[in-house]
Design the sequence.
């Protein structure tokens, strides 16, 4: 798995993208080529353990990892680090405030604005107008791979996304085996190869049963999402002030959880499924 030309590793902070980085380092003798950069786009809604894992990867493997965030001032993005990174959803909230509109399954502008474009901004700040983006998708994610290959640029000029792990036939089992013997690991539960705590904590694309479980585990997680839904003031918006119209609002899910309404969680799990997004990887 070698690199030819300007390349950015889209590092999600999960086990799969970290494994991809490890293979790249091994393929290049432990040091990436000078025109290859590793970038973590922080939304402010990642679990603290995800942030520590990103820092651990940089420290244990001695590889620079750039941290970037969306902001609604200056050039629209800024570079941060483990200590200065947002932890209370500030980048995501700034984007919602600017648009006065919530992302939803049809308009997933959060991934584009908070991650894809900010990584592109970083690369262009280094003088790279055209470059490859390596995404941590595995061979056992065929739908996401098909979407990626059908639209390699993702609508962003100058970039071409590819999934080297899928090309190599890597599956979640192989990723899992690596982390069982690694000197460090992401300190989040691994459930059948999936990390439900990963990426934005209560992302609206996650299955409702997972969202309910995460709120029940820590009700404070639901407060930020409920606040964003209540902050929308434009009555004519398509999504009606909620991230999704096909299930209860975050405020309702929070209230149900606080009332220990287990029956709701089972009903929601039968009614709808989560939605895959190639912008957010494990």
Sequence:
């Amino acid at each position: 798995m070698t690199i030819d030309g300007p390349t950015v590793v889209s590092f999600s902070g999960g086990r799969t993208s970290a494994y991809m980085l490890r293979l790249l380092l091994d393929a290049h003798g432990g040091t990436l080529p000078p025109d290859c950069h590793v970038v973590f786009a922080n939304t402010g809604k990642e679990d603290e353990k995800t942030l520590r894992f990103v820092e651990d990867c940089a420290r244990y493997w001695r590889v620079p990892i750039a941290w970037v965030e969306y902001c609604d001032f200056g050039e629209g993005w800024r570079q941060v680090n483990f200590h200065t990174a947002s932890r209370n959803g500030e980048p995501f909230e700034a984007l919602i405030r600017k648009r006065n509109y919530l992302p939803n399954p049809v308009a997933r502008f959060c991934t584009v604005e908070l991650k894809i474009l900010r990584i592109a901004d970083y690369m262009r700040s280094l003088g790279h107008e055209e470059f490859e983006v390596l995404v941590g998708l595995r061979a056992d994610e065929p739908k996401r791979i098909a979407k990626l290959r059908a639209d390699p640029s993702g609508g962003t000029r100058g970039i071409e996304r590819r999934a080297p792990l899928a090309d190599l036939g890597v599956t979640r089992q192989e990723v899992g085996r690596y982390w069982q013997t690694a000197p460090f690991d992401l300190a989040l539960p691994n459930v059948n190869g999936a990390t439900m705590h990963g990426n934005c904590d209560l992302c609206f694309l996650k299955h409702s049963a997972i969202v309910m479980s995460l709120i029940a585990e820590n009700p404070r997680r639901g407060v930020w999402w409920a606040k964003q839904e209540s902050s929308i003031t434009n009555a004519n918006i398509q999504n009606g002030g909620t991230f999704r119209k096909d299930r209860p609002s975050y405020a309702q899910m929070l209230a149900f959880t606080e009332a220990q309404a287990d029956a709701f969680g089972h009903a929601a799990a039968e009614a709808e499924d989560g939605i895959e997004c190639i912008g957010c990887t494990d």
Remarks:
- Strands lie at 7-10, 36-41, 65-70, 77-80, 131-134, 159-162.
